[in-house]
Amino acid sequence: MPSIKEKYDAQGFVIVPGLIPSEDTKELKEACNRAIKKTRNGEWPHRRTVGKQFPPFDNDNPDSWGVQHVMHPDLGEPAFAKWYTSDGLVGTAAQLLDCKEETLQMELFNLLINPESHDFALRWHRDDVREDATEEEERTALGIWTHGVQWNTALYTDSCLYVVPKSHKTPRSDGQRVHSMTQAPPKDPLDMPGAIQVTLQPGDTVIYNSNILHCGAYNSKHQRATLHGCMGDANGGSTRARNVLQHGLEWMQGDDFRQTLVNNPRGNKMLDLLIAMKESVQGEVGYSQSG
């Protein structure tokens, strides 16, 4: 059987069960429930709003499809940082990136949830390649996108993610370009040539190259609480800066957040590497996508 790294390298994604220790599942579910409740009742302002696919997010719609910055000290949920820096998750990321655990930098950690009143979908996209990129621009961007992994970890059955396997290595075909050149979400994601639907059972994690062609479709009637984050290899320098910093991570440089990691040496080291990347970037990073 091929290893998870061989599958990841070949397909651009891999499903890994059991990255949350069984004794931590209850704690994470309870933390998610509190975070979702605060977001829905307006106590937590950092959210992904229905009608807005990419940052910067706004408050034009009261319905939400995501909770941002779940490690933020003001949210007060230490379970999230505990799991983000856990042996299982960090070890798997290092294995897939073929790097040492000591070079992994802290990046984003959010929560994907079902909207309450609206079905909602994201358009087909690559996280850090615009839809109007030429074939050559696309090929160049894919060539450098090897220093990070992104993941969805389902706490409940989740069939929201669609991907095009192997598209992390090759520019879009003419047919794929047609389906990804629009700002509108797809009526049926499986109309995209080569697309498949990814179904996760509770506890499963899909880890993927975020420049694989992918989209998400959210059903307001199906409960969703899916841990959504990314982690990078600091050896990539600033290649991931825009994708990460566009979400607004100034709070991660503050003393309050550092204090939450006082008993977490690994977390402190990962944060140091993120801050070093941030300080290496000159000027505004801008946004990867619009809409």
TrEMBL record:
Q: What is this protein called?
A: Uncharacterized protein
